[in-house]
Amino acid sequence: MNENEISQTFLSQTYQDAWSDYIYSVSTEKADSWDWIIITASNDRQAEAYQIEIDKRKIEGSLPLKTKFAIIADPEGKRVGSGGATLNALKYINEKKQGNQNIKEMKIAILHSGGDSKRVPQYSACGKLFSPVPRLLPNGKRSAIFDELIISLSGIPGRMNSGLLVIPGDTVIVFNPLQLDLKSADSAALSIKTSVTEGKDHGVFINGENNLVSEFLHKQPESVLKAKGAVNGENQVDVDTGFIWFGGNIMQELLNLISTDGKIDEEKCNRFINDTVSLNFYADFVFPLAQNCTLEEYQREAPEGAFSMELTDCRNDIWKCLYGFSMKLVRMTPARYIHFGTTNELFDLMVKDIIKYHYLGWDKIVLCNLEDKHKGSVSNCLIMPKAKINSQSYLEDSIIGAEVTIGKNSIISGIELIDEKVPDEVVLHCLQLKDGKYVCRIYGINDNPKSSADGRFLNTTLRKILDKYRLKNLDVWDETPPSLWNAKLYPICGTMAEAIQYAFLIYRISAETARDYEVIEWIKTDRTSLKSSFNSADTKATLEWRKQIEIAIRVYKCIFLLEQNEEMAEALLVLDKGENLEKEALALLEKSRNSSYQLKMRIYLALSALCNESRTNLLGLKAEEYEDKAYQAIRDSVIGAAMDKHPFDPSKATFITDKVEVELPIRVNFCGSPSDAAPYCLEHGGTMLDAALLLKGKNPIRVIVKRLSEKVVTFESIDLKISRTYTDIDEIRNNGNPFDTFALHKAVLVATGLIPLDSEKFSLLNILDRIGGGLCLSTSAEVPIGSGLGTSSIVAAACVKAVNQILNQDISDDCIYAQVFAAEQLMSTGGGWQDQVGGLTRGIKLIRSKPGIYQSIKVDYLHLEPNILQELQDRFVLIFSGQRRLARNVLREELNQCIRNDRVAMASLERIRHICVLMKYELERGDVTAFAKYISEQFELVKKLDKGASNTCIEFIFDVCADLLDGKSICGAGGGGFLQVILKKGVSKSQLEARLKSVFQDCGVEVWDSTFVIDVKDGK
Length: 1020
Prior knowledge:
Strand content: 15-25%
Number of domains: 5
Enzyme class: transferase
Number of helices: 35
EC number: 2.7.1.52
Number of strands: 43
GO molecular function, one term: ATP binding
Protein name: Fucokinase
Largest sheet: 9 strands, mixed
Shape: elongated
Keywords: ATP-binding, Initiation factor, Kinase, Nucleotide-binding, Protein biosynthesis, Transferase
Radius of gyration: 39 Å
Distance between the termini: 75 Å
């Protein structure tokens, strides 16, 4: 590595170390932290903006625990200078100290951010201190200068006893605090080496004896710097970073200037802290600490404001206060000094030079829904994909529409553009004012707002504009001296859109392409200047705007990841949460309203996850309510698809006989679950291997449908020996409670279309009149409840078939599959299609479907040699576990993982589907033992999908007979009901029965007689 690469590696690690120190400071009170961090502001509105930012970070827990924070505005909004602001901060702390606390022994940092930001006007209202830095912090937050400073300052308190560190609020400095030793010096200037070309625009220190500052030169030309000996052999100087440290003694002396006997003296305060004297921290407090400085030179040093007798008197007293103290020159190498001083510097940093800081994790794209780095540099922007953005542009805190074009070398800030074309080399920035109105400021990227009327403005000068359109100074200025900063150019408008159009008009005026009537219209408007708009800005609205854009971006990216089938956990990491959680939840909910069922179900399940994560309700709903909404979205799609494909035909709907009876076997699922269940099968298709079974030598499912003379609907459950009669159609539509004894019966009538899902046109009597009588639906299932053998769905299939048959409707297998699938959704049990297919189609078969809302089922029968079928029959055993479970509870856990796109779960399901095909292959080639091994493998995968699929009792049953088995699994979704095993070759069912009886005796764990139904219909 070359020297530059070594330095970058060092600074990159320093950056990471600073983050570790920072995290420690916000995590424990044991950290060596600042007692106070003071932020200075130019006025109350700016202070309000700072306070909002600080409060936000307090809520996030991102401020050092032991540190007190205060924002102090210049008194009465009068500019008292950085020196006056420093004294004002010491005054505040002295008034807030408790008991015997001595300010001399405190560790204090002052972040000076009370300027007007004239050279970067888009940051005037809310201050440069909280302007963005182009990186996402490790915690996912967009960084600001403040955050960078707080992080870098975390390691300094441990390097000092007490004292005051003054820091400029427009500079980021990357350095290693281990290079600092502030325990023995009176004061210290923290400096870095930089080229003399850069140094001439800043303060420069000259190093004297014992590494003490001998002179402090402020913005001197190269010739003066060289003549003074400030330039070394590498043509570099010790530049002033603005980071100045005063030890406790100097801090006490400064406090003495405004106090008497330790108490604040208001008369003294008024003398030193005012807009006439306007003390400058560097000129008035740092300059006299240089060894070679004299009082005469000190009095000649350029002040913040103007020379005055009051300033001279104050400087005399400050000289007495500081005389005799020295300033140590602390060189930090390697280090980086990054100044956010002017619009041009900002543009160069964000666009041209950003690559220089990649080793710090800085990037062109920070918080944007698009990741296209050819579309300019972006910070916190929502950009529509078709927008044309020049790569040499910088956009922040904005919304950019699809029809927008952004020109080269332009800066866009705090604005929403819909279809505008922004020219080259302009800054376009919108502000909301306190009265709710808007102003859009436009100026050139190279314009200096401090310049006079003859200085550059866009394509011309303000003087030329006035001359061309015969305007007077009074038309633009009401204060002197006239400058771009105080020129009333920008109309105050009722909407942002109107303000933007006036900004483009101003551009056309500067380019001499505006029409005369437009200029007249512009002159007649109520206009404001950069200065006055800054002073009347609604800082709360500005910060809220930034927050809303960030929320929109994070939600957009979250939605994008969900749509791309990324893991939900990854998508949720994009969200900010915290204080923005409710707003993010609301935005997610809004996105779901007109979305596909896939996106709806994922948004709702995401909201459920957020409820669980935050341990709170969101927008008035609980986690389980959002989960139910996810499945409601699935339900509506499945039901709609079934009814569209197999509509009820009222023209044919009449009783064609008085009674129809249907008997069906149950099914055993060898492999494939839950790939047949929605939503997995809807998105990926499903694969199942199963067989139809007789229990105890007969079909256990029996359904009878009869016509009644009375115009009522009666449901009967023969096995439960209960019945109920209905005359109200809404009672039948109320079928979503899986604990309702007749939920299945009700759902069947709705799924077949006999009972309209939501139509209010028909009463139950109307419908029964039309079909020619009342209807009795009677069911019987000689299978334990919660068996895992597909009982409820097969009962539903028998019901659908019987109802459709007696009413002259479609009784094809495809229709029955689809309508039972819909009935399961109506009951909210969330079943799939394997049960009805397994019971309706006899034999052993591989069942498959392709992705789609409507599941078109393909059945592929296995053709087994008679001896292999007999071996399978001899070795296959059903064991009742003695437990019952509700399939809905087990399935939800599995299917939630599918909705979340859990990678492990999806991989497990894919493997399960492959195993189905491998099992078919092994059976057809006659290897029952290999088939058995795959049964066990899929069981292990199912347990990974859902820990509730098995339990201690189930595993104990398997353990008891493990030496007798080659394969084992649950039936259905598991959690109870029946278990299936494949015996070792040569082991008999009676041996297994004896083993189970010896252990479980009369506890309900027993072998059930089962027989494969091989009389496949249609001669197969």
